[in-house]
Amino acid sequence: MIRTTVLLSVALSCLSVHAAPASLQQCAAISDDAQRLNCYDQLAARTLPDSPAAIAPETQPLPAVQPAPGGLAGAPDAPTVMAVEPTAEEKFGLEHKQAVAEDAPETLTLRISKKKKNAYGKWVLTLENGQVWQQTDSTRYNFNHKDGLVVISRGSVGSFFIGQPDRNKRIRAKRVK
Cβ distance 145 to 134 under 8 Å? Predict the structure, then answer.
């Protein structure tokens, strides 16, 4: 609620800086609908940061608008859509839907530098590259490969499996760090 109030007050202060109230009153006084709409569109174009009118709004007067035959006078072009990076709150819960890079490997073979079981009896593996993986299923498994190698493979729907190169059995896991 506080964040919304702050954003609203910042937006209103920006509007008051870029669009003079007298200009809004001038637009409101126009009786023809098409001309009034065009006047408001031009005021809105002044406040966009990427428009040339935003650089010096005082120096560009509002042009007179003549109605076009068979249509609205000065109908604006398609609106400009600016790409905005979603916030962490907007991304919440969608982490598993992020696109996987095309060059991402399907499997990794790495060496275990540290292995232990957590309080729930599930494996927590620290690998030689610093990644930490934790078992998520309740499958019983022993990591006893002579070289300490594990194979991490990508599953469906964003899941991962950890196994050993010389065994078919594997466990489901997630990356913790």
Answer: no
